[in-house]
Amino acid sequence: MSTAPRPSVVLLSGGLDSTTVLAIAAAEAPVYALSFSYGQRHAVELECAARQAERFGVRAHEVVDLRHMGRLVASATALVAGSKHEVPKGRSTGDPSSIPITYVPARNALFLSYALAWAEAIGARDLWIGVNALDYSGYPDCRPEFIAAFEAMANQATKAGAEGDPFRLRTPLSELRKAEIIAAGIRLGVDYGDTVSCYAPLSDGERALACGACDSCQLRRQGFVGAGVDDPTLYA
């Protein structure tokens, strides 16, 4: 009987958190990485995701085209191109009870559903996602309650779950501060200079420059300070 670890599916955006999760998952089992093009303003992150997937030796990296999603939700979020909303700058990130306009309706529920389908097809049972319930912008689909509810749903909605071979949602960053996440990633060899966190990056030739003022940039910058590590981010 084979004792080889079962593969897992990692949601990989190309940002700081998801790349750290990729490194953690890849140290444990073979990985299939899943990214999404949903019309996000920071689509340059997908280029980082492709390089990180190669760097960590994933078995396959799929980018799902969900650009129609961007059109469907543009009226409700600032995070997609074509939205009438501006990405907030200089907002206090200390109140996660206030859900900002950068929240994308049902994004993680949709992404995890794709991951669940792929996982069942390839025999994977662990789904990894880089949600965080401490240093985050207050999104409801990053909270432990959502993760628990989705895991329960996954095991009701699938053949594998019905036959007693359950899925697990793996959220290793959920209770970590951004500085702790960065420290963990550095131990695993993550190149944070090749990740994008900014919600509204600017283009400078072939480089993406972070705005330095959106929620994500503020949390990222604070994380490097807290970790006592030089911030490799290129800011505008």
Structure report:
The protein is of the alpha/beta class and 236 residues long. Helices cover 36% and strands 12% of the residues. It has eight helices and seven strands; from the N terminus they run βαβαβααβααβαββα. The strands form two sheets. It has a five-stranded parallel β-sheet, with helices on both faces. A two-stranded antiparallel sheet has the order 6-7. β6 (202-204) and β7 (207-209) form a beta hairpin. α1 crosses α7 (178-187) and α7 (178-187) crosses α8. The longest helix has 16 residues, at 107-122. The mean pLDDT is 94.
Number of helices: 8
- The domain tally reads 1
Strand order of the largest sheet: 3-2-1-4-5
Which CATH class is shown? Answer: Alpha Beta
Low-confidence stretches: none
Strand content is 5-15%
Q: What is the helix fraction of residues, given as a range? A: 25-40%
Computed Rg: 17 Å
Based on the coordinates given, report the CATH architecture: 3-Layer(aba) Sandwich
What is the fold-level CATH name, i.e. the topology?
Rossmann fold
> CA-to-CA gap between the ends?
55 Å
Mean pLDDT: 94
